[in-house]
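debug: dumping io for the single-chain case to check the tokenizer round-trip. Nothing else runs in this session.
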Amino acid sequence: MVLLNGADAADAWQIGQGGFRMDWDASDKNLLTFQGDLYGGETGGQPVFSPTPPFLSTTDASVAGGNVLGRWTHQISEVSDLQVQLYYDRTERRIPDFFSEKRDTFDADVQHRFPWGQRQDIVWGFGYRYTKDRVGNSFSVTVVPERRATDLLSLFVQDEITLQPNRLRMSLGSKFEHNDFTGFEIQPNVRLLWTPGARHAVWAAVSRAVRTPTRLEHDTRLSIVAAPSTPVTVVSVFGNPDFVSEELLAYELGYRLQPHPRLSLDIAAFYNVYDNLLSLEGPGRPQPSPPALVIPFTQANKLRGDTYGVELFANYHLADWWRWQVGYTFLEIQLWPKPGSVDMVSEVVAEGSSPHHKVFWRSLMNLPANIELDTVVGYTDALPGQNVNSYVALDVRLGWRPTENLELAVVGQNLLDNRHLEFSSSIPTEIQRGVYGKITWRH
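debug: decoded output
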């Protein structure tokens, strides 16, 4: 990518990754899976803030990690099965003079599916996750304590009920969690699927979800130089141990129509109600902290809002070898500060950081001699909250399968522009036109 003035953003990255997977049919009813991955590399262009000149610079970050997973699947009967999974992940991130983290995650999950009577299919399970981390602090990011371990207990149950065979089905379920930050959380959902005919399907859903806090909201202080004056003025955002979960109540309604065997049409509408969203409260009284003057803000839950929109999608087979897909999305975001909030920024930024309109057209062609030609054209509306203009992007992929296991491909991305901005950050960068080759071997 490049900077807004066309200069190289110095954000090149290189990562090596390797992995394996083994599946063993221990018997007709037992399948064992064991897999793992290792990776490591560097990413460039990471911003680093400092209370002394030059205040903002870039550096390279190192990344490394690995994971291993074991899973046992037991087929109890044709309509019932049991799955047990164990997982371990190790991640390491280091950005010099900015932040470092070493994190270990242990995860165990059990899931059981079985029928209940003639019209109910139940899936239930439970899990446990243990995470411990160790961080390295700097002027920009300070996490206290530097070491912390957290536990997450979860239980879920879902009941698929056939109210009318081949016509009406209902799904009832809920997820129950206990975390170290907010305690007990409940996330229920209910869904209905009505198929009045072979070419029609109507579905509706109501669900509740939460985003539980992390160390970022509870334990972290983020700092940035706001003015290189004398003394230097620094804005700091402090974590809040009283930060609670952000809440969502979602309503969905959809309809699918297949007027012709080669054509299917989908429309889905949604309305979401949010509460306890993240806000930045302050500023508090400036605090002299040589060699800087610190203006403090605190993370809180004093923002609420609604989002609503519609999604349209069409899938059309012009021929057995040629398929078109067309989609359109409309999104409206409306946020309001809750009583007592003095945050004047989060509302504007959040409302203007998602596009109101998105449109795409995709062409998928399977040509003779095992050649594939895929084309995607997409329009994305402007993001006023990030000073990003609307843009049209064109991607093209030409692939060839000389054998069943080997695939060769050439991909061109963002072919209509030399470069354009898609998001904003502390150091805005633009996406360039690019071409790359890809070789895939499957065995």
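debug: round-trip ok. The chain has a mean pLDDT of 92.
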